[in-house]
């Protein structure tokens, strides 16, 4: 969901500053960030940004199809574990 049109997209200042610094160098380092609310801008295309999911930094390569979305949309925070019932519980439910 995009903010209203009269507001500019939110990008954390420290992230924007790191991207601008990498543009002027020839390095292709991974940028670590905790800012999941930052919007992906066209200036970020081609960089790898590691977004924190609460446990680890997950690398995310930015391409032109991701522009306008937020960084947190592509890095899930929860891991799904199946709804399997243990065999001992299944036997108890039959009786």
Automatic annotation (TrEMBL):
One of its GO terms (biological process) is translation. It is found in: Plastid, Chloroplast. InterPro entries: Ribosomal_uS19, Ribosomal_uS19_bac-type, Ribosomal_uS19_CS, Ribosomal_uS19_SF. PROSITE patterns: RIBOSOMAL_S19. Gene3D superfamilies: 30s Ribosomal Protein S19, Chain A. Keywords: Chloroplast, Plastid, Ribonucleoprotein, Ribosomal protein, RNA-binding, rRNA-binding. One of its GO terms (molecular function) is structural constituent of ribosome. GO terms for cellular component: chloroplast; mitochondrial small ribosomal subunit. NCBIfam families: rpsS_bact. Belongs to the universal ribosomal protein uS19 family. Protein S19 forms a complex with S13 that binds strongly to the 16S ribosomal RNA. This is Small ribosomal subunit protein uS19c. The lineage of its organism: Eukaryota, Sar, Stramenopiles, Ochrophyta, Eustigmatophyceae.
